[in-house]
Amino acid sequence: MIISESVGKNRLPRYLSTCAAALVVWVVLYGRLQPFAAWLTYRVISLERGSHLASAVEFFVFESPKVLLLLVLVVFGVGILRSFFTPERTRRVLAGRRESVGNVLAALLGIVTPFCSCSAVPLFIGFVTAGVPLGVTFSFLVSAPMVNEVAVVLLFGLFGWKVAGLYMGTGVAIAIVSGWTIGRLRLERHVEDWVFKTPTGDAGIAERRLEWADRLEAGWQAMKDIVGKVWPYVLLGIAVGAGIHGYVPENFMASIMGKGAWWSVPLAVLIGIPMYSNAAGIIPVVQALLGKGAALGTVLAFMMAVIGLSLPETIILRRVLKPTLIAVFVGVVGTGILLVGYLFNVIF
After folding, report:
1. Were 164 and a residue from 14, 112, 156, 275 both cysteine, which residue would form a disulfide, CB within 3.0 to 4.6 Å?
2. Would the pLDDT of 7 be above 60?
3. What is the distance between the alpha carbons of residues 93 and 99, in angstroms, rounded to a whole number?
4. What predicted TM-score, i.e. pTM, was given to this entire model?
5. What is the average pLDDT score of the chain?
6. What confidence tens digit (pLDDT) does each residue in 250-291 have?
7. Nearest to 286 by CA among 229, 335, 237, 339
8. Strand partners for 122
9. 307, 282 Cβ separation under 8 angstroms
């Protein structure tokens, strides 16, 4: 035991020095992205300035490393943060809370706890069998993918604090109201019967206290796992955004996704639901749409539908929810997204 603690303490200075060196390299690379994109586009490839192709290529060359660098930094920090919030600890925090307090707490915890579509079923089962009310569980299930901390930081880096703050605030509000509404409807009978008979499976298991060296390792592992999985989606999203940026006429998106078209918000939601993407992949598309004249509320509604009401997650949830409850879930969350879209189109 003494040897183990000594080894753990000896790892920390080495990890900290590595992190400091990596951060210096990150800052240098991030600061040189714009000159590099221009140099590669106009000096190396020799594309004509002002052409559609040059505009698209420069966008792709600049945004690809920019988004990936932001993603690496954010996911590393979030990996450290998540070492304090295991799913088991989250369940214990939410179990037994008053429902209204639980909805708020669940929505806030959803921002920082690990979640993806593939973990929707085990998390749902664990929450329900631990005594977490159904409405509180849904507040968490809505918040965790929609108010994605990666999305918040990337939005901040690309658009500034106002857009990032609006996205986070409205996403949390949708999660709270959706969970509260579903809780009021008393739809427990529309959960598959076998869910309530499932044992929790972790009773009596003590959580190991992590040293800071372990938390830094958790951040490194999260960075490898998450960035390793999402980078193709990021590049695909940036490629789509580059095409929009370079070839779509300046006012075209304003005509179909602008404030003047009342049907633009529901259409954006309907288009977004069948798509499968994560926040890191969809944000470059959002950036390009806004740059071409699309309204902020319409674009936010589109993004929320993609990452908060994705068809793959809904299909996975069918394993534990009956069709009636799935329909209520989609209807309530979708209504909240529509209201957010119209609200921001009126304000901005």
Report:
1. 156
2. no
3. 13
4. 0.68
5. 79
6. 666 666 777 777 788 998 888 887 776 666 677 778 878 887
7. 237
8. none
9. yes
Residue 240: phi and psi, rounded to 5, are -65, -45
Total Cβ atoms within 10 A of residue 237: 26
- Residue 124 pLDDT exceeds 50: yes
Instruction: Sort 107 into a burial class: Cβ within 10 Å, 0-12 / 13-18 / 19+.
Output: buried
Cβ contact 307:152 at 8 Å: no
User: In degrees rounded to 5, what are phi and psi of residue 321?
Assistant: -120, 140
Backbone angle region of 343, left / alpha / beta, with phi > 0 → left and psi within -120 to 50 → alpha: alpha
- The two most distant CA atoms of the chain are separated, in Å, by 69
Structure token digits, residue 158: 């690309």
pLDDT of residue 26: 92
CA 173-149-170 angle, 5° bins: 20
Which letter does DSSP use for residue 188 in this model? G
